[in-house]
């Protein structure tokens, strides 16, 4: 389990009129992984700024956490090539790991082979093993592990954890307990992660006796501090197997070990109790979380609302939504959208629409996806005018490359309805909006032709537009036009 530590440092005795930009502040905004950070580093030095190795290492750590591995590797290479610092075993290991992430295990092998013998330490051997594991190179990983054993480098749980992760990733879960046994035989003490991987290996095979044995062994080990995460993993497997009593027992033990102010732990328990259908337990844990954490962030509200919607407790969800609105947390449409989609899934489209319109009236951001979902619901109920209104709003919010694409079935149903019942203006508006989101097609023009004919308008110019768009008349087109002349 990764603990979140927030450090707040106050220096009231010093006030700076202008905060001098740091190297981190120059590199951090360069989020595009294709953007090179080398010019920034060169410019920093050229302008006579101080270069601190500790700061560069901190930047590398930060970039790795944010999966910006290419830029982290650039800084590491720049440090080494410029002689900024003499690499320690840790720096070599980090550099090798980054090469593996960016260029693959073959490049990591080449780098490792070129290292001097004194730099081939347990850290660099471990980093290369991790590269093999990440890319599921079983034979290479096992061969490399044997070399590590021969050199006396397989003395930490991390090494064996890597192999257990490898077997997990390739689906050979039955081999994981054997690795744990070998680990103990070699006098290497398993850590919490070792045991959790083993619990997982039994859980995925529905071997609940194995899960219990590992938990009991953990509880007797003096070097192991039982945490909420371990019991929640077991609880999750019990839930999937329908073992409600065992699941609740594991969740109680998990709750006993929650760290104060650990919102992640509370959220996890809320989700698991929701899977069990236990609304009272969900709300009890929510009350505990509010008391422990003092202030709930958007992630906490998201977890609770998703859980309540899953339970079908939409009235309760709406109360929590009001609580969020009064919390002074920053606005995030993803939170009310949970309830909006929940109402839509229950067929309560009027409530979903009312929420969307309320947010719209307050000039709050909404997304096309929710409007489209509500439109689809109205189509299912045959309320086409409301569906058309919602879908127009969805299309008006469309932004290219933002993940949402109009639903093809909704488009087809609305085009069919407008073609049979709508006005020329309706058809032109819909087709104009659709052009921004999807390629124009024959059905759009057939809808336009139908409304033109019904409205007594000539279609010659319309057929010219159709031709310019590269759409030929077919039998259906001629059939629609001939109805006019019949």
Automatic annotation (TrEMBL):
Annotated SUPFAM superfamilies: TPR-like
Compartments (UniProt record): Mitochondrion
GO molecular function annotations of the record: mRNA binding
InterPro entries (UniProt xref): PPR_rpt, TPR-like_helical_dom_sf
Matches recorded under Pfam families: PPR, PPR_2
Keyword Repeat recorded: yes
PPR repeats, residue ranges: 121-155, 156-190
The keyword NAD is annotated on this UniProt entry: no
This protein's UniProt keywords: Mitochondrion, Repeat, Transit peptide
GO cellular component: mitochondrion
NCBIfam families according to UniProt: PPR (TIGR00756)
Family assignment from sequence similarity: Belongs to the PPR family. P subfamily.
Protein name, entry field: Pentacotripeptide-repeat region of PRORP domain-containing protein
The species this protein was found in: Glycine max (Soybean)
Gene (name only): LOC100805658
